[in-house]
Design goal:
79 residues
Length: 79
């Protein structure tokens, strides 16, 4: 295989890759718009909103009780 043939083969591979990538991006964009179950301007109702808020509050409380750098103080050689 000559250098010219290898270049043409690589160019052919890249063209098919670009076509496939463009097709996948188009499919992803179109399916994202079709998956929306609410109309523009409406709020999306999320049933897990309360559970997520409870988890966020629990994590915030835990962070208040456990400040960064407070653990393993006995393992430091200078402490």
């Amino acid at each position: 295989m000559s250098i010219e043939e290898a270049g043409l083969k690589e160019m052919e591979i890249m063209n098919t890759w670009q076509e496939n990538t463009a097709r996948f991006i188009e499919e992803a964009n179109s399916s994202w718009h079709n998956d929306r179950k609410f109309k523009p301007g409406e709020e999306e109702e999320d049933e897990d909103d309360d559970a997520a808020q409870d988890r966020a509050r629990a994590l915030d409380d835990w962070k208040d009780d456990n400040p960064r750098g407070a653990g393993n103080s006995k393992l430091t050689p200078c402490g």
